[in-house]
Write a structure and sequence with these properties.
DUF982 domain-containing protein; three-stranded antiparallel sheet; DUF982; 4 helices; alpha+beta; single chain; globular; about 100 residues
Amino acid sequence: MTTSELKVAVRPLHVEIDGVGRYRQVFSVDDLAALLLGGGWPQSAKADPAFHRALATSLDAMELYIDPETAREAFVRAAHAAGMHVLPDDMAEMRKAG
């Protein structure tokens, strides 16, 4: 089995990618990359450097070149740059705004 056939786990998160209040779950680096490359990511946000960093770190983490937490952090920054909420990362901020 090669490294690309293994699912590299990340701390679970939920990203608001399908519209306000509609979240998708992420459990692996593969899930991060799938959301970045899927049709749900805003097209206008794909030109942002945060998007490109998230994609590059996800691919590197899939091959075990970098720590998966680095890919997760880059994904969260890219999601924020695209105007998406990420749970549980944004819980404190959402409670304050609530």
